[in-house]
Every structure is written in structure tokens, then in C-alpha cells.
Amino acid sequence: MRRVGLLSVHTSPLDQPGTGDGGGLNVYVREVARRLAARGVEVDVFTRRSDPDVPASTPLDDGVTVHHVEAGPPRPLDKHELTNHLCGFALALQGHRSAGTHDLLHAHYWLSGWVGRRIAPRWRVPLVQTFHTLGVLKNATLAPGDDPEPPLRLIAERQVARDADRVLVLTCGEAGLLHRVHGLSGEKLTVVPAGVDLDRFRPGAANRPSTAPELLFVGRLQPLKGPDVAVRTFAAVRRQLPQARLRIVGGVSGTGRGATGPAELHELAAQLGVADAVTIEDAVEQARLADRYRAADLLLAPSRSETFGLAALEAQACGTPVVAADVPGLEAVVGAGGTLVPGHDPDRHAAAALSYLTDADRWRSAARAGVVAARAASWEHTVDRLEAAYRDVLDSHDRDAVASQALVG
Length: 409
Known about the structure:
Blueprint: E1 3-7, H1 24-38, E2 42-48, E3 57-61, E4 64-69, H2 79-82, H3 86-94, E5 104-108, H4 110-123, E6 127-130, H5 135-140, H6 151-163, E7 166-169, H7 172-182, E8 189-191, E9 214-218, H8 227-240, E10 245-249, H9 262-271, E11 278-281, H10 286-295, E12 298-301, H11 310-317, E13 322-325, H12 328-331, E14 338-341, H13 346-357, H14 360-375, H15 379-408
Parallel strand pairs: 1-2, 1-5, 2-4, 5-6, 6-7, 7-8, 9-10, 9-12, 10-11, 12-13, 13-14
Antiparallel strand pairs: 3-4
């Protein structure tokens, strides 16, 4: 395995996670690309050009190049608009100077899978798919203010799942969902969880919890992630701990644009009488994000749906306990390092938060457990599994090619 092509049509690993369409997918693509390159695999990342001023190709790291493919107007587009430009992306990719030089294509998200299932056969290479989120799951857990995913996405995901040589999933729960919804066998599914950068996300020296605790929410400001639940939870906490504060870190995103944006969250905080203690800031780069985790006493993660709770994993790596909604993607990440709360009732989330903020021994026990769990979830472990999956797919592809040649002969 010498060269791998990663498809990330709708968002670039160069984009800031936590704003727009940037999130855990961006982090995943960037981190695995760098680590594959460090192991001697040359990596090309193909993403749509969304800025007329960026160069056609940009080095991300030694051995990793991000290629900006011309498909539609060179400006940010809503993901629903991108479906009109997928054919253009595929045609441009087919004519790219690196076309046909890769051993394998790995598509991220369903838009990339749509392109990959057309390009991989032409390049005569296997296609590996990671969905990161599934339309059927989002529709089953719609938040107030969100629109359902369109039928086109549901149909495309089924086709991509069927045609990919291997589907990589972030959790066993995602594997079960793909089996139930699309009938995929265990032979076609491989669990490759996301990881955490343990050099960057590590515990601080603070003796917590503090007398004026800070609660933290990290994520895109869309209904799916539940920032409104975080504000309501904080208001309930503050009735018991009047010195508490809440910091929200993230940018506006998603089909519920405006429903949980900064203005709406500030208004909600004012209605609840806690506006003076709520800070909302834009998404920050990873080093500063690690500082935010270490400065916080607790992370609130009340998502209505998660495929993989990367922020919860990063917080635990920093020794910060997590109070999260009991949904599959968070259930796979939050163990003894926090508490999973059924449903999204703010009072129940607040009760779980207070159990840590008012009991130092319980807080420290969870902090230690979270750090221990995170040490087993490094990006190096992710890439170990990823490489093994790639090699298995390549071996199967080679065997199928030999069998086909024998039949022709």
C-alpha cells in the first residue's frame, strides 16, 4: 500500500472544526492522513474548492496533500446544494493529474461515497466508506428546528453501503444500525473508532472542582447538538451553585440555522436569568480547545444524536468529567469518566452535573477514569485498525481480480 486517496467532498481537513460543516470528520481525516503518511503511505485528500483564493493543492504535512477540486461556485455551499455538483466533482476527479495512481479510495460522508462509487471502478481500486453520520439516524432523532434529511440522502446511503468494498463504522452501535437498515453483514463492516491526540489533550494540574465551577459545551451550534439543552441545564445548576459559569464554544451550522445560534442562546440565557454567566465564543483551534477543556470543571454533551462523541473523548483525556445524553455515539465513549443521562430533560442533566460539582471525591474518581480510558483511544490505535482494514480490503480485491482473470482465461 503506497498511495491512498481520501474523499472529503463537503468539508476540508484544513477547515476549523466546530463551525460551518466542520466537525469530528475534519479532525478524523486530518489525523489519520498525517499518521498514515508518517508510516510511509502517501495520502491525497480531495475536497471541493470553496474559496477562489486557495491553491489547487496544499501540503497538509509531509506526505499529505489536500487537493481543491473545481465543482460548482468556489464559495461555501449548503450540503443540500452540493448534490447538484457531485457529477462535476466526479468528472473533475476523473481528470485529475493523480487519477488512477492510488491503491485504494476512502470516502468520508455520504456525499463523498456517492463520488467514490463512481470513481473507484474507473480507477480499478477498492472503495472504503465511512459515513460519520447516517440520515436514517438523524431523522429518527430530529431536534426542534431541524429539517429531516431528504430521501435522496437515504437512497444514496443505501447504494453506497451496498457498493463499497468495506464500510468502516465508528462504534458497534453504528454497525448494528447498518445491519438492520441496509442488511450489511458483519463481514462487510469493520469498527474503527475515532481517536484522541494524547500529546495535546492531556490533564492539567488544577485541583477540581472549583468553588466557582465552569461548565463547558463544545460543538456546532445546531439543534442536533443540544446547545439549548446545555443552557437550560446550566440554569438549573446555577440555582444550586450561583457562582457557576457556562462557556459555549462553537459556530452556527446545520439545517436548523438560526434556531440555536449565538443570538438565540443569549436570548434564552436572558429569559432564564443567567445571561451574565454565559460566554459564547467561536470555535477555536485544537491547542486552545485543549486549554478550554482543562479550564472547565465539567463538559455538557446533551446531543440528540451522535455517531461518535469526539468532544467527550477529548474532555476525558484532559481529565474533565462529562455529563452526556444517553445516545449510542456517546454511550460508546462515556464510561466511568462521566454520566449518561436518559433523555434531554435539563433538570436530570443538572442533577448529574451537580453530583460531580458538589462531591470532590466523585469528581476526581471520574477524572482519573476518563484519562485512563482515553489512553486506550489514541489516533495511533485508530490508524492501526485502519491499516489492517485497508490491507484486508486490498487482499480481497487482489484475490477477486485473480479469480476474474482466471475465468476470462
